[in-house]
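Cross-check.
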Amino acid sequence: MSTHLKSEQFNDGLLGIAGSETTAHLDACPQCRTEMEAMRQALGSFRAAAVSWSEGAAKQVALPNKPRAHPLWIRPLWVLAATAIILAIIISFSGWRGHRNKTAATVDAQAQISRDNQLLAHIESEVSEITPMPMQPLQVNPQVRAR
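Predicted model, tokenized:
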């Protein structure tokens, strides 16, 4: 085999999913085999460094075990009390807000009724005319007919 492994074949070998052609080439080519082993060692070193770094970071973040200041049965009482206070505030504001909206809606409805009544009065006055203004030039004069 005169050619070396392609990058895809090399990656497959590193991942452990190399085909029979790649395996045969690695057995026959000391240069590719040396490069493969160097890469595996580099990846192993990187893996070990990453694991040790994460363990060190975890130790720095971990909180020391402190003795409990309050018994466990007191904590749920505080949570329950805080929840009750928050619910009371929310309920009172929602009731107040709803009342304010009802009042505003009533005022808006009365104003709309007034505007509607004015519009209906104007329409009634226009309809009640004997002959509409645009049609008056076409109106036949009853005095002229009587002759």
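The helical segments are 7-15, 20-28, 30-61, 74-128, 142-146. The radius of gyration is 46 Å. Passed to J.P. for a second look.
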